[in-house]
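ok so I'm stuck.
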Amino acid sequence: MRSRLLVVLLAVVALGPFLGKAFHIDDPLFLWMGEQVALHPLDPYRFEVNWSSYPRPMWDEMQNPPLCSYYIAAVLAVVGKSEIALHAAFLVWPILALLGVFQLALRFKVPPLLAALLTLFTPVFMVSATNLMCDVMMLAFFVWAIECWARGLEKENFAPLFLAVALVVAATLTKYFGIALVPLLLVYTLARARRWRPGTLLLLIPLGVTIGYEFLTKAAYGRGLFLAAGNMAYGAWDKSHLSLGPQAIVGLCFAGGCLLTQLFFFGARPFSLGGALVAGLLAFFLVPLSPAWALGNNAPFVRIEGGIFAGAGGLLLFRAAEDFWRRRDAEGLLLALWIFGTFIFSVFLNWSITARTILPMAPAVALLTLRSVPNLSQARVILGVGAAAVISIALAAGDFSEANASRRAAAAFGERFRAEPGTVWFQSHWGFQYYMQQWAARPINLLDFHFASGDVIVIPANNTAIRQIDTSAVFTPEEVRFPLVPWITTFARTSGACFYSSTRGPLPWAVDSFPPALFYVARFR
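replied:
not stuck anymore, here's the structure
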C-alpha cells in the first residue's frame, strides 16, 4: 500500500505544477462538446464549430467518441470550467493508469514502483497528462482492462472478466483505439490457456456495443462515426502520397522520442544500443524525407535528433520481438502485440503520426524494459529515473509554455482591441481560438469572409490552418512576441518537431534554440 501511495504522490508532485496550463491543441473540442452534453446529454455532436477555417458539424470535425466529454460535463457541473479545476479533475486518469501499471508489474514479476515511474517519466505520458484530451483517460481503462482480464483468467472467475469487458467498452467509447483490446485479449487468452475458454465469448460484448454505437450515430447524424473516423484517417493517408520507407522511419523516430526512457536502462548491452543509434542516424541522413516533413532551420541537427530517436524506436521494437522469442510465454506475446499493434496503427493506419497514438505503448515499454534488464543496481535506477524525469518534465514545461503563450496573447489582444467598433478577426485554431472567442473575436470563415475597413486581423506564426492574406488589403503588419521556454519544444516551425502531428515535422520534440511566440497583427485598409 505504501508503494501505491508513493505512486500517487509522485504523480501529483510531477503533474501538479501544470494544473494552470491553458487549454491546448484539441482541448477546446472536448470542452465544447462537454458543454453540449451538459445541455443535450443524448445529442453530443449536434452543433457547428469553425475548426478548419469554415464551419462544420461537430460530427464531421470530432474524430473521437464522446465519453471524455461526458466526464468533462460532469466536472463542469461540479467545479466549473477554470483551467485549474479541470486539470485537477483530470489528474485521476494518469493516477489510475499508473496504478494499473503497478498492478500489471506485479503480474509480470518486475519491480512495480519502478514500472510506474518509467511510465510516468516518459515524454509522451508527461505531456499528454497535462492536456484535457481523451488519450490518458483511454489509457487508464486500457491498462486496467488487461489487468482485470488476466486476473479473471488466473482465478477462473467471471466477475473480473465482466469488469474487464466493461473497461474495454469504456476505453472504446473514450477513444476508438480501445477496441484493439478485443484481439489483444483474445490472443493473450489463447496463448495462456492453450485452449478455448468460455469466458472469451464476453469479448463479443465490446464488438456489439461498437456496432450499436455505429448504428445509433448513423441514425442521429447520417453517418456512423466509428467508420467515419477510419475513413478520415484513410483519406488523409491517401492524399499525403507518402512512401512506406520515410513513413516507417518517422514512425520509429516518434516511438523512440516519445519513449526515450528505454535508453537509460540499456547500458548492459552497449553494442545493440550503439548499432541501433548508428542505423537510425544513417536512415535519417540517407533516406529522402517527404517535403511535408519540414526539417526546420537547422536540418543537420534535426536529422541527428531524428536519427537518435529512430534508433531508439528500432531498438524498442527489436527488444519486444527478442523478449517474446527468448521467453515464448503469454506475457511476452502480450507485450509484443501491444507494442507492435500500437506502432502499426500509429504509423500506417492513423491520419498522421502523433505522440498521442504512441501513448498506449508506454506501459508496455516500461514492463518490457524491466523484463529485459533485471537486477538493476540502486545507483542505476536512481540515475535512470532521474534522467527520465528531467527530460519528461522539461518537455512538459515547454508544451506548457507554448499553451500559455497563446492564452497570454489572446488576453493582450482582447485588452487592446475589444472596445473597438470594428470586428477583430483571427486565423488559426487550438487553444488560441478558444481564448480569442472568449472576448468575441471571430475566426475567419474562408467560405464567406467579408471584412470592413478598420477591422483587425491577428495571425499566430506557429499554429494550424493559416491561409495567405492578400497583403494589399492590409496595412503593414505589426509583430508581437511572447516569451517561451527557449531551448525545448513540442512544436515550432523552425524545429522540425510537432508532438501532435508528423504533418508539421518528423520529430515529436526537439532541443535547440527557439524564438519567442510570434503573432502578426494587421488592420484592413
